[in-house]
C-alpha cells in the first residue's frame, strides 16, 4: 500500500509538522500560495482563539526542504469567479514563482476552497500541472477518473481514519489524507497525529510516497 498526505496554506505551524514528519521519514506535499508570503512572517487570520501566521519568503526553502511542493494558487482566490486573465495569473504565475523559489518541478495543484470548473481545470492543465487535488472524499482515490479531480480519503483527524486506512491496506491501494497544521490546536491533537505517522511508518505493508510519483508511473 502507498500512503500520501497533503497539507495546505504554508503556515508557521508547519515547522513542527515538518520536524515530526522528518523524524519518521514520512513524505508529504505542501500546497503554497506564493503571493501571500511577505518578506517577513505575517499575520493572516484567526482560527478560533489561535493566530495563524504565514512564513516569510526567506524562511520557506529551509522549512520545506526535502518535501514536495504543490501550487495552491497565487493568493488563495476562489478560482471559478475570476476572469481569464486573473485565472491565468493565479495558476500560471504562482507555479513559476514556486519553481524559482524551491528549484524543483511543481506539477501538482490544490484548489483553494475546493473550487473549480471546466475553465479552471483547463487553465491548470495548460499551466503544466499533472494533477489537482479537490476536497472531495472518495474511495478508492487512485487512479482517479480525472487527474484534475483528485480526491482524498479523509482529513487527518477523521474519527474513521483507521477504518479507512485498514480498508485500503487490505486492497493494497493508495491511502490519502490531508489537512492544515493550524487545525492542530492542542497537545492531544499533536500526539494523535504523531501516533498516526509513527504507526504508518512502522507498517511493513505501507510506503510513504509523494503524490507526484503516482502520476509519473
Describe this structure in words.
With 217 residues, the chain is an alpha/beta fold. The protein has a single domain, classed as TIM Barrel. The protein is built from 7 helices and 11 strands. Strands 1, 2, 5, 9, 10 and 11 form a 6-stranded parallel beta sheet that branches. Strands 6-7-8 form a 3-stranded parallel beta sheet, with helices on one face. The chain has a two-stranded antiparallel sheet with strand order 3-4. Helix 3 runs parallel beside helix 4. The longest helix is centred in the middle third of the chain and has 19 residues. The mean pLDDT is 97.
Features:
three-stranded parallel β-sheet; alpha/beta; TIM Barrel; 7 helices; 33% helix; 217 residues; six-stranded parallel β-sheet
Number of helical runs?
Answer: 7
Label the overall shape.
globular
| DSSP strand tally | 11
Q: What separation lies between the terminal Cα atoms?
A: 15 Å
Q: Could you say what the CATH architecture is?
A: Alpha-Beta Barrel
Amino acid at each position: 500500500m502507498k500512503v500520501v498526505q497533503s497539507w495546505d496554506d504554508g503556515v508557521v505551524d508547519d515547522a513542527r509538522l515538518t520536524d515530526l514528519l522528518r523524524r519518521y521519514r514520512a513524505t508529504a506535499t505542501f500546497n503554497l500560495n506564493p503571493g501571500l508570503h511577505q518578506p517577513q512572517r505575517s499575520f493572516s487570520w484567526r482560527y478560533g482563539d489561535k493566530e495563524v501566521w504565514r512564513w516569510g519568503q526567506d524562511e520557506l526553502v529551509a522549512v520545506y526542504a526535502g518535501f514536495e511542493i504543490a501550487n495552491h494558487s497565487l493568493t488563495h482566490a476562489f478560482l471559478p469567479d475570476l476572469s481569464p486573465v486573473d485565472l491565468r495569473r493565479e495558476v500560471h504565475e504562482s507555479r513559476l514563482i514556486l519553481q524559482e523559489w524551491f528549484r524543483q518541478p511543481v506539477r501538482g495543484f490544490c484548489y483553494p476552497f475546493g473550487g473549480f470548473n471546466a475553465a479552471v481545470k483547463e487553465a491548470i492543465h495548460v499551466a503544466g500541472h499533472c494533477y489537482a487535488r479537490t476536497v472531495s472524499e472518495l474511495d478508492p482515490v487512485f487512479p482517479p477518473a480525472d487527474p484534475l479531480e483528485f480526491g482524498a480519503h479523509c482529513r487527518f483527524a477523521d474519527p474513521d481514519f483507521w477504518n479507512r486506512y485498514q480498508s485500503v491496506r487490505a486492497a493494497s491501494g493508495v491511502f490519502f489524507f490531508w489537512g492544515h497544521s493550524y487545525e492542530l490546536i492542542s497537545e492531544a491533537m499533536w500526539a494523535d497525529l504523531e501516533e498516526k505517522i509513527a504507526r504508518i511508518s512502522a507498517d511493513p505493508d505501507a510506503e510513504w510516497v509523494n503524490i507526484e510519483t503516482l502520476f509519473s508511473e
